Amino acid sequence: MTVTIENTTATTAFADDWARWHHAREDGLRDPLGWLSLAGLHWLTDSPDHLDGVPGTWWVTDEKVFITAQPADRLDVDGERIAGVRILEPVEGAPGLSVHNEERVLEVIRRSGRFAVRVHDPAAPGLAYFTGVPAYPADPRWVVTGRFTPFEQARTVTTGAVVEGLEHHHQAAGIIEFQLGESREAVLAFGTPTDLKLLFTDATSGITTYPAARSLAVGAVEADGTVTLDFNRAINLPCAFTDFATCPIAPRENRLRVAVEAGEQDPRS
Q1: Which residue, 62, 99, 191, 235, has fewest beta-carbon neighbours within 10 Å?
Q2: CA dist., res. 95 & res. 231, Å (int)
Q3: Are 135 and 113 in contact (CB under 8 A)?
């Protein structure tokens, strides 16, 4: 009887801890200028263009983004109103540079050598209608121990993206091997040994979970070379919530054969 009580208490504590994490995750998604605020994605060309619903004129020359605007357009960069021409140089694959337009942020990004303006709007429908992220019930069975084997040198791994023609370049630190049920898996771990993460798909992808990839924060490798993978905390990438993100897809090596019925589910299914 004592063992049953202890097991029940441990399971309840595990579920409560996961619930706190899940609520914090949902609160983060409610950021008024976060991923759910995306209301547009405009790809730029070398021809000056007026973007739908966006003030000013925008174009690309010599791998730089040019913006022409008047003070009445209310476009601000680094606290200064654009009055004439402003040149921006976003970094490939990095978070974009911000152009403020009253409550909105126009994020200037560079992806695979292409440039775009991503519109963050606190009045976006994605925020207005957000009621939470569907997820599988927390279950301790989906917490497994893996063994990390580092590469002698970090490798660059290229994956595709949810936007056709784009690529993402990831730093792979090594391989994580682990057992899920009867399935022995080995996956690429991105990041560094002090902060690893996975991009993966599994047999639920495209059925109950988002098809392109889910992400799992693994954290630091222990002194004995082991890592903990808690698939209950597998999360959706931004592209699961919006058509205006440019997320990567999972690398071929990280397509798990087992159905991982844990973590976040597809919010659009």
Answers
A1: 62
A2: 27
A3: no
Q: How many CB atoms lie under 10 A from the CB of residue 249?
A: 19
Type of residue numbered 128: A
Do 56 and 68 touch, CB atoms closer than 8 A? Answer: yes
Neighbours of 114 (CB within 10 A): 16
Listed in sequence order, the residues at least 6 apart from 241 whose beta carbon sits closer than 8 Å to its beta carbon are 29, 35, 36, 126, 267
Which one, of 245, 251, 246, 264, lies nearest residue 126 by Cα? 245
pLDDT in tens, 189-218: 999 999 999 999 999 999 999 999 999 999
Cβ-contact 196, 227 below 8 angstroms = yes
- Which residues have a Cβ under 8 Å from the Cβ of 208 and sit 6 or more positions away? 261, 265, 266, 269
Output the pLDDT for position 7: 67
How far apart are the C-alpha atoms of 112 and 166, rounded to whole Å?
Answer: 5
List the beta bridge partners of residue 230: 143
Angle, CA 233 vertex, CA 232 and CA 239 arms, to 5°: 120
Q: Could you tell me where the beta strands, DSSP code E, fall in the chain?
A: 38-43, 57-61, 64-69, 76-77, 80-81, 84-88, 97-101, 104-111, 114-120, 143-160, 167-180, 183-192, 195-200, 214-219, 226-230, 235-236
Cα(191)–Cα(178) distance, integer angstroms: 18
- Reported pTM: 0.91
Name the one residue in this structure whose structure tokens are 């924060």. Answer: 217
**Domain spans in the chain, listed from the N-terminal domain onward:** 35-128, 134-254
